[in-house]
Fold this sequence. Notes:
By secondary structure, this protein is mostly helical. It contains four helices and no strands.
Amino acid sequence: MRNVALKDVMLIGATMLSALAVGYLAHQYLQVPPADTIGRNALFLTGLMLCSRALSQGAAALAPTAWTITVVVIGFRSTGDAYPWTVIAEPAGALHATVGAMLLLVGGLVARMYTSRKIS
């Protein structure tokens, strides 16, 4: 039996490392301040999609879009400051957003391992 789930997790991990690298390089070399949140937001939204895929296969691709719309509509205080739960609207130095994104990605990867189809 081929272990498709492990290969999926490795591919997702490599893609997320690429997103982190692109965000870092864009921030460092192009001097684009919000670029350093690209990787964190990619981790968060990918983890969200993987977790929602474990629950509802058809609606998984909609989860990151729905989250982004929710953040835009109700994710900010009247002062323009983002609520901590939004994660993707937090500034680059927000430790809770980084930790939350990493935890959600790990949760999504674990969910992917246990809900993957088995191919023989």
